């Protein structure tokens, strides 16, 4: 898995020592971080992570945060970063450093729902996702609980639909229900109705090594029922990186992607030509890396980071030296 452990010529997935980190950071302007499982688990910051980001800022590094979680607005994520000690821009006119799938889904719909009628979306997701869509002029319906109406399929199909819906958006929705799934399929029977998923994460890491089902489970349910494939916004889709690049003017050769998932964070970095660091505080393990390295599947072999750390706090010695 690591260079010293495999003994091979593949220099990818090397433990990032302080010496290596110093050399890496000397050639880097921008560091992009995943959030859940990298900076925090639930409402608890990863030990040493706030100090690491403070030190990176002091070194003049530009930071960005790319999260697949659609349950918070861009501003709410920026506030959480500040609350947990990670700093960031503040005050009127400050531009958030966060690029979440709720915000980027709004940008996607603004690009694709042009012309009359006025854009409207059926949202299987949070109020935060709807708020981001409405901020760019996309009206939203469907947020919140929606229990089954009537005694059987006939009654379910008679439930009224909102006129003018031009997209079904699937994000993290704790109120996901069979009624919502049925309505989504009915909207998607219109050939010009878009199906958009915020991300395909199959589970979300919480404190104490616990997980809950992720948005990808809900997207798959809608895809299967509608027999349609969703346009995916979040990592590893290049669209979310393009959103960052357009605002930041990123040079990929001088940018690092730091994440805890091989199939989202690391694959995004590899696809976009970034340097990559896997942190072992979240979902993926070194065993997963080794499995990918030894796989005959080319797509899996792409999901191998350049470096790994136990935690992003491992960067502190390089920043303090």
From TrEMBL:
Task: Detail which positions bind Mg(2+).
Answer: 34, 36, 260
* Catalyzed reactions per annotation: sn-glycerol 1-phosphate + H2O = glycerol + phosphate; O-phospho-L-tyrosyl-[protein] + H2O = L-tyrosyl-[protein] + phosphate; sn-glycerol 3-phosphate + H2O = glycerol + phosphate
Which keywords annotate this record? Carbohydrate metabolism, Hydrolase, Magnesium, Metal-binding
Question: Which co-factor is required?
Answer: Mg(2+)
Q: What class of enzyme is it?
A: hydrolase
The active site of this protein is located at 34, 36
The UniProt record lists the keyword Coiled coil = no
Tell me the domain of life: Eukaryota
EC number, as in UniProt: 3.1.3.21, 3.1.3.48
Please state which protein family the record places this protein in: Belongs to the HAD-like hydrolase superfamily. CbbY/CbbZ/Gph/YieH family.
Describe, as the record does, how this protein assembles with itself and its partners: Homodimer.
Please report the name of this protein according to its UniProt entry.
Glycerol-3-phosphate phosphatase
Source organism of this protein record:
Molossus molossus
Taxon lineage? Eukaryota, Metazoa, Chordata, Craniata, Vertebrata
């Amino acid at each position: 898995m690591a260079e010293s452990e495999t003994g091979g010529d593949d220099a990818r997935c090397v433990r990032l020592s302080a010496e290596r980190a110093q050399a890496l950071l000397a050639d880097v302007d921008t560091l992009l971080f995943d959030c859940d499982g990298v900076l925090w688990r639930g409402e608890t910051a990863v030990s040493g992570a706030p100090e690491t980001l403070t030190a990176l800022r002091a070194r003049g590094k530009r930071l960005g945060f790319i999260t697949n979680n659609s349950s918070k607005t861009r501003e709410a994520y920026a506030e959480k970063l500040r609350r947990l000690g990670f700093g960031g821009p503040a005050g009127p006119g400050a531009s958030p450093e966060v690029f979440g799938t709720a915000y980027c889904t709004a940008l996607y719909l603004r690009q694709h729902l042009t012309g009359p009628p006025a854009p409207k979306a059926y949202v299987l997701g949070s109020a935060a996702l709807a708020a981001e869509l409405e901020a760019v002029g996309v009206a939203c319906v469907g947020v919140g609980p929606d229990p089954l109406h009537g005694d059987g399929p006939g009654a379910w199909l008679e439930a009224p639909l909102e006129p003018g819906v031009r997209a079904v958006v699937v994000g993290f929705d704790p109120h996901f229900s069979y009624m919502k799934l049925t309505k989504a399929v009915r909207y998607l029977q219109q050939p010009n109705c878009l199906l958009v998923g915020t991300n395909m994460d199959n589970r979300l890491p919480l404190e104490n090594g616990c997980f809950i089902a992720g948005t990808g489970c809900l997207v798959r349910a809608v895809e299967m029922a509608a027999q349609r494939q969703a346009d995916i916004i979040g990592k590893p889709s290049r669209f979310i990186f393009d959103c960052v690049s357009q605002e930041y003017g990123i040079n990929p050769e001088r940018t690092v992607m730091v994440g805890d998932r091989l199939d989202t964070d690391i694959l995004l970095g590899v696809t976009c030509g970034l340097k990559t660091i896997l942190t072992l505080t979240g979902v993926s393990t070194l065993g997963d890396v080794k499995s990918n390295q030894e796989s005959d599947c080319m797509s899996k072999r792409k999901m191998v980071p350049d470096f790994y750390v136990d935690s992003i706090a491992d960067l502190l010695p390089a920043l303090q030296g």
